[in-house]
Write a structure and sequence with these properties.
Elements (H helix, E strand, L loop, with lengths): L1 H19 L2 E7 L4 E10 L4 E7 L5 E6 L4 E6 L12 H10 L5 H15 L3 H14 L9 H11 L3 H11 L5 H17 L3 H15 L4 H17 L3 H14 L4 H6 L1
Antiparallel strand pairs: 1-2, 1-5, 2-3, 3-4
Helix pairs in contact: 2-3, 3-4, 3-5, 4-5, 5-6, 5-7, 6-7, 7-8, 7-9, 8-9, 9-10
Length: about 260
């Protein structure tokens, strides 16, 4: 009994330490304040961040910040990040150690993307849900969110997906907001609502997110298909023309060739 319990207790202790660990970070707050070179810690009981900054006098000044007051967070990369890319268990460990500290959602994105590439959408959903339990925002406003949405779409879970897309479309991260509009188009298209898919999805990406080339290229391709379905060939050709002229090297342009 003793030999079995010791490793378990040690693992629990290590997780507890990591959960309380301070990590180097930079922050930009919703009021425009920039905080550089701080030490950041998530306080799960208080549901707030503890931010420690070293003043010019050398004194450490600490303050509590609500998650909604943080517009952008840049946390130092975990030391084992590069070595963990193809190791699901290592990625889940990073997600646990960096809960609410950016790299939980980064790990979730890599994990879900890999599982989707293996046609394991259900496993991708389960992995993302584990991360979502510790960081609800990761499901709609993070690098993990678009991969999670794709996995939900593939498993047919359009109920929860629709709510997440509505929230994601309001994200301050334009790449996330663009992906939300694109996936909204996919959901509507699967419901045989081509006109709504264009209006509420693909065309929003085309005209509102011109600085998001990967998403926009996919949206142009799918918009052309939707216009074909609606028997509007001139609009379809316009979409294909933009795709070929502006994103000729993209996988979506290659599909046309």
């Amino acid at each position: 009994m003793t030999t079995l319990r010791t490793p378990i207790l040690l693992a629990i202790a290590l997780c507890a330490v990591s959960a309380r660990a301070d990590v180097p970070a930079r922050l930009r707050l919703a009021d425009g304040t920039a905080i550089g070179q701080c030490m950041l810690r998530w306080l799960p009981v208080d549901k707030k961040y503890n931010v420690a900054v070293k003043a010019q006098s050398g004194q450490i000044v600490e303050r509590m910040i609500d998650p909604d007051d943080i517009l952008q967070m840049q946390v130092a990369k975990p030391k084992n990040w590069d070595a963990s890319q193809k190791n699901p268990q290592a990625l889940l460990q990073i997600a646990n150690e960096y809960k609410m500290l950016q790299w939980d959602s980064e790990a979730g994105a890599v994990l879900a993307r890999g599982l989707l590439a293996q046609n394991k959408a259900k496993a991708a959903v389960e992995a993302c849900k584990k991360i979502e339990q510790g960081n609800p925002r990761a499901a709609w406003d993070s690098p993990m969110a678009p991969e999670y949405w794709r996995a939900l779409l593939e498993t047919g879970a359009t109920g929860p997906l629709t709510k997440l897309l509505d929230k994601g479309a309001q994200s301050q991260d334009l790449s996330v907001a663009a992906a939300a509009c694109l996936l909204r188009g996919d959901v509507l298209e699967r419901q045989d609502r081509a006109n709504d898919a264009l209006k509420d999805g693909y065309l929003r990406c085309v005209f509102l997110f011109q600085n998001q080339p990967a998403v926009r290229a996919e949206a142009l391709y799918k918009a052309a298909q939707a216009f074909d379905k609606l028997r509007k060939p001139s609009y379809a050709e316009k979409m294909r023309g933009i795709l070929l002229s502006q994103y000729g090297n993209s996988p979506w342009a290659q599909k046309l060739r």
